[in-house]
Design goal:
three-stranded antiparallel β-sheet
Length: about 45
């Protein structure tokens, strides 16, 4: 996983073998691929 895909406010938590990401409000981001696409497209 490449660090620059995630903005500085996104935290990754490791649970077992899975990596889960949470937004600034602490909501779990289920679709990490959608998140990455949004970040790559410059949507903040």
């Amino acid at each position: 996983m490449q660090g620059q895909v995630l903005d500085r406010d996104t935290k990754g938590y490791i649970e077992g073998a899975d990596i889960n990401y949470y937004d600034e409000q602490g909501n779990k981001i289920e679709n990490i691929f959608l998140l990455n696409k949004q970040l790559q497209n410059g949507i903040r």
